[in-house]
Amino acid sequence: MIVAEDLVAAVDRAFAGLQEIDPDQAARRSAPAAWSAKEIIGHLVDSAANNHQRFVRAQQGDALIFPGYDQEHWVASQDYHAAEWRELLTFWRLFNHHLAHVIRRIPSSRLGTECRIGDGSAVSLGFLVDDYVVHLTHHLRQIDARLVRS
Question: Does domain 2-149 have CATH number 1.20.120.450?
Fold first, then answer.
């Protein structure tokens, strides 16, 4: 699937630049309620974890309902703000490479599987796969924009 290659390219391109960010700068928040770059990458790890489950489990049946995702709780409970920056980046990169591997192996016949997340509307597995990359690139742009302002 082309989206898998797009995912790897986006992650690897971002990884190279993210490694250049000083860990102290990665921990800075632009506002008290805003996430730091560390917390945004942590959120993207959580997104990878949740979507890994979705991408695999949606291949098992005709329709699946997944639990919702409280992103603030996930980020806070794992205290990404205190995580070691380089380790977090490496984990994020490798997890996404694995997700690309999983995506490449989704049979085209399963891409139409109906998925519902929490109380949301039904979407296809194919939509979730495509949307995952859109979501990831959105948050990477947020990090880039924050660094430009600092």
Answer: yes
